[in-house]
Structures are given as structure tokens and as C-alpha cells.
TrEMBL record:
It comes from the Bacteria. Keywords: Cell membrane, Membrane, Transmembrane, Transmembrane helix. One of its GO terms (molecular function) is transmembrane transporter activity. It is found in: Cell membrane. This is APC family permease. The chain crosses the membrane at residues 27-48, 54-72, 109-134, 154-177, 189-218, 238-258, 279-301, 321-339, 351-373, 413-438, 459-478, 484-506, 538-558. One of its GO terms (cellular component) is plasma membrane.
Amino acid sequence: MSIAATNEAVAAPEAGTLQRKISWTGAFWIASGVPALVLFSIGAIGATVGAPAWFVWILSIIFGFIQAFSYAEIAGLFPHKSGGASVYGAIAWVRYGKLLAPFSVWCNWLAWSPVLSIGSGLAAGYVLSILFPADAAINTWQLTLVDLGWLKTGLALRLNATFFLGAALLLVAFAIQHRGISQTARVQVILGVVALLPLVLIGLVPLITGDVLAAHLGPFAPLAKDEAGKVIAGSWDMAGITLMAGGLFIAAWSTYGFETAVCYTREFKDPKTDTFKAILYSGLLCIFVFTIVPISFQGVLGLGQLVTPAVVDASGTVTTPAVYDGILSADIYSGMGVASAMADMIKGGPIVHHVIVVMLILALMLAIITSMAGSSRTLYQASVDGWLPKYLSHVNENGAPTKAMWTDLGFNLILLMMSDYVFILAISNVCYILFNFLNLNAAWMHRIDRPNWDRPFKAPTWLIGMGTVLAFVNLFLLGMGADIWGAGTLVTGLVVSAAIIPVFLFRHYVTDKGRFPAAMMEDMHLKAETGAGTRAGLLPYFALALGAVVVIVARMLAVY
């Protein structure tokens, strides 16, 4: 590493900068909100994929764990930086194209930031469900502001009780983090213990009591319905494979998320040892939760059957959708009924039911704080490095990137008005898969371009290779499975990800007059230094071209 970077990494904290106040355990507890992400899409995946849904979660977390070793290595290269894997990967790509680096960082932020709106919306829905009947006026009224049906049927921006309560929860999360990373870590320890307990109980209790039925976990065939709408076992034809790809695509948004543990490298007391420990133990926690919870959830509820057939008018238009029970029920798909269904799995009566729902609300708050901490630091470091507007690099007296946090909050208040959280999640995941592709490839690019840099953790070469293979597997899942969640998902996600181009061009060429900040220039080896150069040659461009081909071919193979 460069001398300047090394010196900065060990310097005493200064006012106006992020401060070294936590160990790997602090990052572990901050990242402990990731297991709660299972609540976001467990119903949607089950209702889309069918009986193999439990296997989707297990396979996806295995992918995520393998990829984590690549992220742990590149994070160790830059102990003086915050913001996570996208920031460390951006330095690999910037010498091969200025637009590639901010694209990586932008996609990572767009992937993580919507956790705030989706999580607060679900938490608000859970609160309303235990306080008021489903048909109460407070649960049914809404004011539609903008009809977005041209983007997806039924999509709109609206105001309702969920929005206002969700906004209040976001402000609580903001207030907690305003006092800095060490205070956030302390709160997360308390929330983590309380909020992870119900997930552990939900995963283990049904297995112990024998309520998990093997019949509910099979047959191992994709979901299909006959002409009458009854649930039947599908076939492993291209349509079935497309459903599986769609499930693995959306699960990645949750199961890969523990890579956020490396967002806090700049705030570790000892980044050389803390970085790897943080992501390793966060990954092991996620393997446990993302394995037992989906198995128990599906094993108890079952996939579900047709309760009331759809009502169709003379023109063939569905006027009243079909009603299903089990995982196929509408409130499980949307996520709003997941907490209540999970609470019923414990079989403790009304009081225990409400206690479990409250604890799951805390689990969502845990996820919200995890996301705000990580995504705001991505904005902060992207600003410091010259990708995003300068105002985002402001830090308060407690070392919290408050202007980045306010930006996160404002963006998510808009998303919170969306009427379809699953669609938001899917578009967000298009960006997340693109981020993962760029940064898994960044691991081998750093190896080639920076062979002599100190690596506190150096992953086995075969794991770097597997991470690279999974980068292309993820793109295949993106191309084949994204539009399972709405016809415009893939295109919308690509358009949103490209929105960074005008933002970066203004910052770089108007604000900075075409020059990067001095510290960033050193990180990129733009100053004279032994080993400077782009040793990877054309390989990064070949990887990009191959990635584009994979997405196109996968999209052509998909059958909806």
C-alpha cells in the first residue's frame, strides 16, 4: 500500500472524519440485521418458485458465503476507506474506465438503500396489524398521488397509515445513528439479541416439535397451476428453470447482504484483523438463519391450495383474483402477513403471538439500521473519492455522515410511498447483481494490478476463481429471472443504474475540473509508483463483454 494511505490508516481520529471506535464484534452486530432480510421475500419466493423454495435459500446463502472471501481480501487492501466492497472494487475498475467505478458504487447504494423503505413499510404494517383489525379505516384508507401503472400494473405513489408510521420509524433509526458508529453498535447489540431470538425460535421450535412436514417441502418441482387455478407440480422445462432462476435472483438480495460487514473498515480499531473476522462470523450467522427459517416456514405453512377461484368477466379479464391459503396467500407474498404467520408457528397463544410480532418488528428495525449505516457510508466514501456530490462527505462531531444519511432518508421516503414493495426489491436487486459482478471480478484485477500490496487476509486462489464464476452465474440469474417479478424489472433496473452517469460527469468535470481528489489519485496509482499500470490488459473488457452476452442469452432463454 502507498505510504500516505498507510499513515492515514493509523492516524488518530480527527474532527470531521470517520473515527476508529469499533472492533469486529461491533461490525458483526451492526450487520446482524441482515438475517432479518429473510422476512422481506420469503413469502414472494415461496409463492413464485413453489416447493423448491427452501432449497433456493440454502443454495443462495452458499453462493454468498463463497463470494464473501473475495470481498474480505479486497477490503483489507484499503484499511483507510469506508463504504464497503463497491468502494474497494471501484479502485480496481477506475483505471480501465472512469465510468465503471462510480457505476459500481452507485449500484451498491441503490441495492442497499431500499432496505430502509421496504423494512419500515413492513414494520409499520406489522404494527398496524396487531393494533387494528384488517378492515379498520386506518388500514384501508389511502390517497393516491401518482399512478405508475404504465411501469407495472397496480403500481402507484400513495399516502396511507403505513407511510406515516414507516416515516416515523426511519426517523428513529436516523436519531440512533446520529451519535456515531460506536453508539449505533451498542444499540444494535441490544436489538440484535432481542430481534434475532424470534428468528431462531421460528427456525428451531417447529423442527423440535415435529410440526415441519416433509410433504410440505416437496415434490421437488416448480410451481404450476392448471386451467382452474389449482396448484400442481410443474416440470423442469425452461419455464420451470426460469422460475428457479427468478427465486435465486431475488434471494440474493437478502443472502449476499452480510458483505456489508466490510463497510466499516475505516472505523475498525484494527482493520487488519477485524475486517475478515467481521465478514466471516456475519456469514456464519446468515448461513444458520437462511437455512432453518425457510425450511421451518415452508414445512409448517405448506405451499397452499386454491380456496376461491378467480372471477372472470365476459371479456376474459380477471375482476377478482383467486384466493389461496398457505404461502400462496396474498398477504404472505406481499410480506405483510409473514410476521403473523411466523408467530402462529410458535403456538403460544395470543400473548406469545403479539410478543413474537413485536420482536420481528425489532428485527426489521435492526435491518433498517444496518442498511442506513452501510448505505450512508457508501455515499460518504463515494463523495470523498470524487464520484458523488461533495456535500455528501460531511461528517458531524460524532463521526456520523449525516448529510449522506439525510439523502438516504429523503430518497426512501419517496420509495415508502410505493404501493408494491416486492417490485422495489426486484429493481434494487438488478443493481445489486451488477455490483456483485463488478466487485467479484475486482478481486482478480487487484491481484494482477497490485500483486505486492499488503493483504492482511489473502483468500485461496481457488476461492477467488469460484467467486469469479459466480459473478457470471449471478448475471445469468439476472437475465433469466428478473422479469419474473414484473415485465419491466430488468430494463427499469438498468435505467436506474445508469442514472449515475450525469451525476458523476457533473462532479468530475464541472466541480473537480476533470481531476480526482489527491488521496484517490494515490489509491489508483495515478502518481508515480513502482508497479503502476493496468497489467490486466484487455481482460477486464473481455469480462464485461462476456457478462453482457450472458445476460442477453439468459434473457432469450427465459420463458414466462
